[in-house]
Amino acid sequence: MATTTRKSLLIGTAVGAAGLLFAADGAVAQKRGGSLVYANVSAVGTMDPQVAAAVVDLEAIHHVYEALVEMGETYNAVPGLASKIDVSTDARTFTFTLRKGVKFTNGKEMTSADVVASYERYRRVSPNAVALADVASMETPDPSTFVIKLNKPNAFFVEILKTPTYSFSIIPAEQKDKPARELDVVGTGPYQVAEYMKDDHLTLRRNDGYVADETAKGPDGYAGKKTAWLDTIRYNAVPEANARVAALQSGSADFITSIPPDIAKRLDGRPGLSVLKVQPFCKETFIAHAKNAPTDNRLIRQAIRAVIDVDDIVAASGQVAERNASLMFRTSAYYSEVGAPYYDQKSVEKSKALLKEAGYSGQKIVLESNANYPYMRDFNLVLAEEMKAAGFNVEVKMVDWTTNVTDMSKGTGSWNVTNTGLCSGPLMGPQQWRLSLAFAQNGDDPVLVDGYNKLFATPGFEDRKAIWEGMEKYELGDAFLMPVADIAELRGENDKFVNIKPYYMERFWDVWAK
Fold first, then answer.
1. Does an H or E element contain 354, and which?
2. What pLDDT is attached to residue 438?
3. Residue 287 and residue 481 in contact, taking contact as beta carbons nearer than 8 Å
4. Partner residues linked to 273 by β-bridges
5. Quick one: which H or E segment has residue 114?
6. Backbone φ/ψ region at 487: left (φ over 0), alpha (ψ -120 to 50), beta
7. Which residue has better confidence, 440 or 436?
8. Which one in 205, 315, 342, 404 has a CA-CA gap of 20 to 30 Å to 66?
9. Phi and psi at residue 154, to the nearest 5°
10. Neighbour-count burial for 145-160, b at 16+ CB within 10 Å, e otherwise
């Protein structure tokens, strides 16, 4: 059996009774205390990790909940609540040895009974339940061991479990029958909920009963040894970008997200303030609803794609962006040029010809977007004008970000095209794209289902890459997804805190006040 585990490391420091971490020379390096205020684009919509897809929700969720397998610093799969993962040679049996002594915020010790209950609930409520479709059995031979057996081999299974979106977070067994979005917020993470005012703010406080992974040298992405130095973290909903920057300038916020580049210039030269850049951050993509007429017609989708002018759309949004026809970032081992023929066609005449072939007769095309992320709105507005030039009847429908995400996830809202930044798939690989491909409401497409079955059953990388390229060619060729560009995220911080590191989804453990 192949084993994935961590080496034990000795930490040559000591934590004093007052919560101070001393370096070898006695100087204070870190300390408990301080409250960080984070101004985000919208309020936290849910604290249920098994159904959450929006970064706004997930950033808070991952401070409270943890999973057996987590996303590491380089987006690789690393053990989290598992101390060891054993995989059978046929990639059908996965044995997780649990870390001992881990406790939920209600004081209860986590056991394999909680793990199996969490996975059973996941199969029932998560939009990503398909990830467990091939599970033949889940066993708990003792309180510290959890075993999953699959009906067929899956070389990607451990990688699948690291997903930060629709996380496989562990909850207390007594909550397994809770409906989606109705969990009592009880996790094993370094923070816990102090106050949650939906549509306004969320405050987390340090979990003083947190059991860190002492075998790790320090934090590793969402895993490793995490230390909660801050007393509280408050997430405020500040939808307007100028208001977020003003909050940072005035001191009413310590950290802000999603700053448009033109507005970020206001922070240039301001003492005590700085801009952080995460790049690549997300792949800005138009998504066509494959089951709502008239975008259930492949020719209509291809006609929409034909008018897209990448440079015009990016210029209008003002984003820091890089052209990329692939579903993968260029840093990915799965990156290829298979999408190049479908990219940036900017041809009104081609679009008109496709509409004629489709028999289009003026049916309304609904573009759904939100104003919480102004660049998403601008992407849609420019696309609407490009489509009108080809003869489309277009309506732009504005909703709030939470509704936009829900409509994408569930296919609700009577939309035909929407756009969003797809982040985890381009970073983490084909197995992660399975979550985002479903936004086009074609997750049950036989071509994709068969592709994933072959992908998961194939052990060799080159063969897997060839299978993925075929799937990507189908997804892009039939215009379910229409990538525009890889965008950067600009964030702002003041100088009151130490060790905030730019990451796909921001983390505030191992951050302390000066």
1. helix 348-358
2. 81
3. yes
4. 494
5. helix 112-125
6. beta
7. 440
8. 404
9. -145, 100
10. bbbbebeebbbbbbbb
Sign of the torsion formed by the C-alpha atoms of 391, 395, 398 and 402 = negative
Burial code (b: 16+ CB inside 10 Å, e: under 16) for 5-21 equals ebeeeeeeeeeeeeeeb
Q: Which two tokens stand for residue 418?
A: 């929407």
Taking the C-alpha atoms of residue 115 and residue 119, their distance in angstroms, rounded to an integer, is: 6
Predicted TM-score (pTM) of this structure:
0.83
Q: Residue 395 has what DSSP assignment?
A: E
Beta strand pairing status for 145-150 and 93-98?
A: antiparallel
Largest Cα span, the chain: 78
The conformation of residue 412, written as its DSSP 8-state character, comes to -
Contact 364, 395 (CB under 8 A): yes
Give yes or no for a contact between 419 and 291, defined as CB atoms under 8 angstroms apart: no
Q: Classify strands 255-256 and 35-40 as parallel, antiparallel or unpaired.
A: parallel
282, two tokens: 């997300």
Spatial distance between the Cα atoms of 179 and 182, rounded to a whole number of angstroms = 5
Over range 274-285, report the average pLDDT: 94
Q: Write the pLDDT tens digit of every residue in 132-152.
A: 999 999 999 999 999 999 999
> What confidence tier does 434 reach under pLDDT thresholds 50, 70, 90?
confident
Spatial contact of 279 and 504, defined as CB atoms under 8 Å apart: no
| pLDDT tens-digit map of 24-49 | 344 347 999 999 999 999 999 999 99
Rounded to whole angstroms, the Cα distance separating 374 from 411 reads: 22
Comparing CA positions, the residue from 391, 436, 440, 433 lying closest to residue 415 is: 440
Q: Tell me how far apart the alpha carbons of residues 432 and 278 are, in angstroms, rounded to a whole number.
A: 20
Answer yes or no: is pLDDT of 241 > 90: yes
Tokens at residue 163, please?
A: 């997903």
